[in-house]
Amino acid sequence: ASPDGQLVASGSDDGTIILWTADDSHSSSAHAGISIIREWTPPSAQFVCNLVFSPDSLHLLSQDIPRRSHVWDVDTGEEIARLADCAAGTVDRGEPVWSPDGALLASPVFIGMVRVWDGRNYKERYTLHTSARSLHFSSDGAWFITCNLTSFSVWDGMSGTLLRTFRTASPDTFLLRQNVLAMVAPDQTVSMSALTVQRSGE
Questions:
Q1: How many CB atoms lie within 10 A of CB 36?
Q2: What pTM was estimated for this model as a whole?
Q3: Residue 84, C-beta contacts closer than 8 angstroms, at least 6 positions apart
Q4: Distance in angstroms (rounded) separating the CA atoms of residues 8 and 23
Q5: Alpha carbons 37 and 30: distance in angstroms, whole number
Q6: What are the pLDDT tens digits along the chain (202 aa)?
Q7: Could you tell me if 174 and 159 are in contact, meaning their C-beta atoms sit under 8 angstroms apart?
């Protein structure tokens, strides 16, 4: 569902993307009490793997097989950007994620590689050479976390600089708020760390 709660996006195994709304005034057809406002099929799409709304609900990222990523304007259905090919839908790599402020968009692309784009103009910002089963941004977008089976790494969200790698009992047992990271260690103890990075000019 979109962050504003107004839309739901679905994808099918023939590559079709459908936007749904509960507001019949915007619909062209209706089904089971909710309304379809738009549907389309990206060129050469065979199967929709991932659909993710931007934080402002204005854009929709779709990933399909074979390995294509598109950003769509929700209001018009027009393609805004076509990102570099991604190895979407594989079980050992995570889904794409936006930073909460919409400034960054991240996705695993190939084995051992995560790519981050500018969330406004969709130009590539940087590439991380790391495996990832899940991706996370801090609430202010300053920090970016990649998780694999036995550890997670914290990166500077702006530059992609690696800050620290943690080994944990479960890579998802952490909480990041602003620059404070709380995590569960392999011995089940909880620790807290302050994240800092020296930027040029500071």
A1: 16
A2: 0.80
A3: 69, 109, 115, 124
A4: 12
A5: 9
A6: 899 989 999 998 888 999 998 654 544 444 455 788 889 888 777 788 889 999 999 999 998 876 678 999 999 989 999 987 665 444 446 789 999 999 999 998 877 889 999 999 999 999 999 988 889 898 888 889 898 877 888 899 999 999 888 876 555 566 676 667 776 666 666 667 776 655 444 4
A7: no
> Residue 10 is encoded by which pair of tokens?
């679905």
Q: Omega into 186 within 30° of 0, i.e. cis?
A: no
CA 1 to chain centre: 14
Residue 163's identity, in one-letter code, is: L
Residue with tokens 């190895």: 87
Rg (C-alpha) for the chain, rounded Å, is: 18
